[in-house]
């Protein structure tokens, strides 16, 4: 359980912004913000994958209901599709 779902992203947030917000909690493997095919903009959520599960848990503890660019984030473990 190392991949987090991050919801509530402001439209100005990009991969670099998201990476900077989550790197303090541990080594990141991947940061991804899916884009809408029609508009080319993201849909308000992204995924952050950590090297270690403990780091992911720490990020959830610290970032869930936290703010990024003035928006309150929803951060939890990503569910497989």
From TrEMBL:
The keyword RNA-binding applies. Gene3D superfamilies: 3.30.70.330. Transmembrane segments: none annotated. InterPro entries: Nucleotide-bd_a/b_plait_sf, PPIE_RRM, RBD_domain_sf, RRM_dom. One of its GO terms (molecular function) is RNA binding. Keywords: RNA-binding. Pfam families: RRM_1. Residues 2-80 form the RRM domain. CDD domains: RRM_PPIE. This is RRM domain-containing protein. It comes from Guillardia theta (strain CCMP2712) (Cryptophyte).
